[in-house]
Amino acid sequence: MAAVIDNATHPAFEKLRSHRIGTLNLTVEEYRHRKTGARHLHMAADNDENVFFVALRTFPMDSTGVAHILEHTALCGSERYPVRDPFFMMIRRSLNTFMNAFTSSDWTAYPFASMNRKDFDNLLSVYLDSVFFSKLDPLDFAQEGHRLEFDKPEDPGTDLVYRGVVYNEMKGAMSAPTSQLWQNLSSHLFQTTTYHYNSGGEPDHIVDLSYDDLVKFYRHHYHPSNAIFATYGNIPAHEHHERFESLALNRFDRQDIELPVRDEKRIFAPVRVEQGYAVNEGEETSKKTHIVMGWLLGHSFELQENLEGQLLSAVLLENSASPLMRALETTDIGHAPSPMCGLEDSNREMTFVCGIEGSEPEQQRALEALVEGTLRKVVEEGVSEERLEAILHQLELHQREIAGDQFPYGLQLIMQAIAPMVHGGDPVELLDLEPVLADMREKIRDPQYVPDLIRRKLLENPHRVTLTLRPDDQLESRRQQAIRESLARRKAALTEEEVKQIVERARALEERQQRKDDDSILPKVDLTDVPLQMPEPESRYAGDIGATVYARGTNGLVYEQVVLPVPDLSEDELLLLPYYTTLIPEVGCGELDYLQMQDRISAESGGISASFSAKGGIDDVQKLSGYLIFNGKALARNRTELTRLLSDVFHGARFDETERVRELIAQIRARREQSVTGSGHALAMGAASQGMSPGAWLSFRIGGLEAIRGTKALDKALNDPTELEAFCNRLADLHRKIQRQSRQFLVIGENDQLSPMLDDLKACWQSVESTESARWTMAPVNYSTRQAWLTSTQVNFCARAYSTVAVDHEDAAALTVLGGFLRNGYLHRAIREKGGAYGGGAGQDSVNGTFRFFSYRDPRLADTLEEFDSALNWLQEADHDPQELEESILGVISQLDRPRSPAGAARHAFHNQLFGRTPEQRARFRERVLAVTLDDLKRVARQWLVPEYASTAVVTSPENRKVAEQLGLEIQEL
To answer: N or C, fewer C-beta in 10 Å, the chain?
Structure first.
């Protein structure tokens, strides 16, 4: 695959260099805008998915969230596009494969990606105008940032309250103990620089930000002289330059922009800090303390420093065989290693963190002694060259792999390059690791190299903070009381004129939110721009071994899966599956204990995993089928080792290391509990739809709120050695049952690797017997739900679900289009703009036959549930523009045609086929989507979305118990 290189240079830009990176199949070109000094990094690659990214260096020196609120407000209308919401409007009028904006600790970025050139140019026009010529309407600041309103906006007799999208987003984000842990640790490691502050905004500080402060920050930071442009794909750089220049840059001159960019002042003795985090009133607080240690290291943008930091982190923490990770996993000081463990290298100066959760405050010194003792032991004993080679092997594999299944590949590369560009380093060095890895391989031959790094960067580094974050069941009530008292004082001090202004602003904001702007000024694609059916990757079948083979451009990696139908399982065995699939790559195998297996996996592969996948039939969601998948990837030179590794784990994994199993279950519990504040909307939807099909029930039981509760109970039960041994025996019995199943294989690699990989499969697997035993089935599921799940959160997650149809039903396409239609036309305005939630929407899940409404980080509860019903009334009663339908169809097609990595596209095609989602069925669905009419939307809503038959679930705080009971919701304690 050759990169697209164009030597033409636009006169407004000077070319600084061009650098070919063979391992990434691209050429990096670096440019500078002559007039303003704006920088442009272009990655020329033979890829239709073109990516645009513009970042501004933003260094806030407070926690008001000014950079974050500005990121939101800048997208609310601009000089050329003076409509209220061009960003969300363009999401609907586009075939984009990615659209978003990010606020990092020291930069703010606006990226998008598209495979359609017309669409790319449309989005570029809107993004450049939004960034450099934003309107910044005060009402948009009130909506997106924060505002004071009366609880009933038109009634000054009601209490004053704070509202705003970012205000509620950050209330949700900072509900998570891990978010508080990171922010508190950063504030002590960085006493004097921007990293001391929360760039997203602390809710109590967000309300101090004024509109004038926002405008001042915009004028100072949002200038091309402070901008970094980055692009990826097959559009030549000079064509980008023509657009950058004509749409924005020609209107600016160079400006010297003062930014507080400096290194942190060093401290010369370790610091210990103890702080509290909120848990529910009356909640048990024992074994809920987090203790972490953080060190400030060198510059992230200096390649040698960066790679040494990565090497250090991998040596100590990569897996359970790494000495520090092993110490943290096996200590009785705490429950599990902290999710903070590792290297943070996106800031100007790097941070190394390790620690534990599930501890007690008095264990702080014990943790320090454990960590220091472990580090000294590594310094004394050294690290084997084989182990260091395995770590460099992981770095090479990570650099070579073409990702892009969740996030455009080009954007991932740009995100790697942005930190050095912001901080003054060389982005090309960080992308082209081959020469540096060769140098590192020489250095690790010195047995003192890594011990010296540990000694210098950690043991002898006094810039260290130990943070203890303990639970406090009174903290939230004190905070809420302080907010109520503060607002009461503010209300008492209001003049008549100020009361009038608050009421008038609320009215003006509602009028603005209800106004329908003339969106014809925005560019758009339409259905004539939709491509024909996207081509399927081609496969061939090797019948003698039962392997499906895909030849793909994988950049020197190979991928392999062993796929088995799920055997006939009892309900108890079924509920064991998520533990089984998580544990199997983490336990011992054959003669090797789990530590030796971790070393082997790291040396021979890019990781192995197991998963369980179940889907309803294409014509009946009550007919569930499921498969177990053993999955691995490796550099092509290790293809034989990968095949043997998967075979050995499948045949030889053992569950007799009981303490290891005990540690892993504790870690699973910790991860699941932490998932609530980030994924509360998905968990609420899962709870609401649990009774609508076997697949929905299963998701709720093994991956949803019931699974979180079940894991907590299991973790507690396994403190009893008898229970632990019985649990391990059940896992071993399940493994033996799975081993007897018939197998098939998926093989993905470059053409010259495929025949040798098939030979390896035959050598490892052909002599192994299997039987076609009875396959697992589930009885139909059909019941309704009304639940409120209580947990520690400052915001709510609401969901309502309806039983609908399978993917091949003739109504599935209309229901899928309906989700976007309701979100675009009603829910976005009602739930996000007016209600202040961070997000809300609706969608059809044809795998499980459900249609779900949801809200995310939502200050409201009952009102949001009412809005879900009101959306259905709006659908039937309002007049609708045919363009709204077209936009919703475009959104569905954009998702159907979303590009994947070469290996990801092959996996997707194979697993679709496995579950009966044939190319013919998908083509049929696509044609139905394109044919959906407004009458179809109204008809399917009347038929399937009848409010009396809805199921409801919310995730909320104990403070809302009475509200939930009044809504007729059954209380569930998480």
So the answer is: N
